[in-house]
Write a structure and sequence with these properties.
This protein is mainly beta and about 210 residues long. About 10% of the residues lie in helices and about 35% in strands. It is built from 2 helices and 12 strands.
């Protein structure tokens, strides 16, 4: 992939659009706990399903529970409204769809226009992500310690994703990865994270680009 000139960290608008965006002046007063404006009935059903699943699950299985909840919804065209399929010109765009009132989880849609990607990162909480539209890729990385006991980031493998594919994430940096779109068309993914992203929109990613 020819990625040398791809943007890594630009400011985009409301929510903020991605975890590294500048929050100054981007607060969206329409956001609140519960379902956001313009969400669909099917998204409401997914949120209810996720609440029911969490009530039955132990802490060690929450990411698997999120994956199971997503499976019946992520490929359904009725899951997202037109408003939540809109991207941004300068970087990928996140849309907050649902923020649980008990602060237990959040649901996002992320829209990737061509040549948009994340930084290499881990996560601060459990989660699951599924492909709604398009064919994004995921690069996995490992952390190696050299003879000087310095930690280095090493590319491990690249996966091509298909609509309906769902992956889980665990807290920490052992599962370091980058997601991006190197196709000529839009990609959309749907994410469930065990964080209150309404209160702290940028809290879910742990950037590893400094390694």
């Amino acid at each position: 992939m020819d990625q040398e000139n791809w943007p890594d960290n630009a400011n985009v608008t409301p929510f903020p659009g991605h975890p590294g965006a500048n929050l100054n002046g981007t607060e969206n007063t329409r956001l609140h706990y519960g379902l956001q404006a313009d969400t669909t009935p099917l998204l409401a059903e997914l949120a209810t399903t996720m609440h029911s699943t969490l009530e039955r699950c132990e802490a060690h299985s929450l990411s698997a529970a999120a994956k199971a909840s997503l499976r019946g919804y992520v490929c359904d065209p009725a899951l997202l409204s037109v408003e939540h399929k809109q991207g941004a010109a300068d970087n990928y765009r996140r849309h907050l769809l649902y923020a649980a009132e008990d602060r237990s989880f959040s649901i996002l849609a992320i829209v990737w226009n061509p040549k948009q990607r994340t930084l290499v990162h881990g996560h601060s909480a459990w989660g699951a992500a599924g492909v709604y539209e398009g064919n994004p890729y995921c690069e996995s990385y490992r952390l190696d310690e050299d003879s000087r006991q310095a930690i280095n980031l090493r590319h491990n493998m690249t996966y091509r994703l298909q609509p309906g594919d769902i992956a889980t994430v665990e807290p920490g940096i052992d599962d370091a990865h980058r997601i991006g779109n190197d196709s000529n068309s839009r990609c959309i993914t749907v994410h469930i994270y065990g964080r209150d992203l309404l209160a702290k929109p940028g809290s879910i990613n742990i950037s590893l680009e400094h390694l």
